[in-house]
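Next up, sample data:
>
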Amino acid sequence: MQRLLLASAAMMLPMMMAACTTATLPPEKQAAVDQSQAVRTEIDELNQLTRIYIDSVTIYQEAANKSNDLHGLKPAVIEIAQERNRQRVQLQDRVIALGGTPAQYGEASGTVRRSMSSIRSILQDDNKVALEEVLRTERYILREVNEAMSKTVTAQSRQLLGQLRTDADQQIARLEAIGNPG
């Protein structure tokens, strides 16, 4: 008898497991799960931007050190570095507000970019290299902010990213004007 019960249970187990895996959550619980996943994605995007902003401050400080202040490049780069640092703090605060842990370090690729910039500055005019590096970084920031906006669900984060995008646009125009004095 015991064998018969065990055999029956063994045959029924796969069917019971299948029933459990095909069960769906009620709509309100599924919406909560979806929202939670969306917020985790948003936190990841904001942390990615935070890493980029951490690197940008270092890149801009190095660029300012390379510049000999041609056409106001050095003070502009110092000012942009300070603004990017303030914005990094805003991104970290937003991650905390969403319940996440903010990034504290830059990207590994940021170190490689800084090394390449150092090599280029040995071979080329420091002002030109400094301007190109800062412009490249600002354009990268703009692309990444735009990408993050498409993955952002909360109004507060969208507003912050909108401000970051506007500022990056303005800084790109400012740097291009420095590079092309008329």
Observations:
- The helical segments are 2-22, 27-66, 73-97, 108-123, 126-149, 155-179.
- Confidence is low (pLDDT under 50) at residues 111-123.
- The two ends are 97 Å apart (CA to CA).
